[in-house]
Amino acid sequence: MSETDTNAVAQYLADHPRMMGVLFTALLLLSQAGSVAAGNNTGIYGP
Length: 47
Description:
- Helices cover 74% and strands 0% of the residues.
- The protein has two helices and no strands.
- The longest helix is centred in the middle third of the chain and has 22 residues, at 17-38.
- InterPro entries: DUF7503 (IPR055926).
């Protein structure tokens, strides 16, 4: 990733401040989904 790409992303986020919240929420949900998937290995034993 070059410096111009970084500046383009920063400029885009400066022009669209709501997108920063959208990206943060998406990362938060993805991190929670990973924890749920990792913790879903419990077995169900019979009666």
